[in-house]
Amino acid sequence: MTSIETPTENPTRPAIARVQGLKVHFASKKGPVHAVDGVDFDIADGEMLGLVGETGCGKSVTGRAFLGLIPQPPARIAGGRILFRPRRREDTSEDTPEFRPCPTCKGADIVCATCNGSGYDTLDLLAVKPRTMRAIRGRRIAMIFQDPGKALNPILTIGDQLAEVFLQHASADLLADIGGTGDMGGLAAGAVGRAARQESGRLDGILSRVPPVRGHLRRLRAALEDRIAAALAETQISNPRRVIRSYPHELSGGMRQRVMIAQALACDPDLIIADEPTTALDVTIQAKIMELIKMLQEKRKTSVLYISHDLSLVRRTCDRVVVMYAGRVAEVGGVREVFAAPRHPYTRGLLDAIPRSGETRGVLASIPGTVPELVSPPPGCRFADRCVHVMPECTRVNPTLQPLTPDQSVSCFLAHPPAPGAAHKEPELQET
Question: What is the CB-side half-sphere exposure of residue 259 using CA atoms within 13 A?
Answer without folding.
Answer: 32
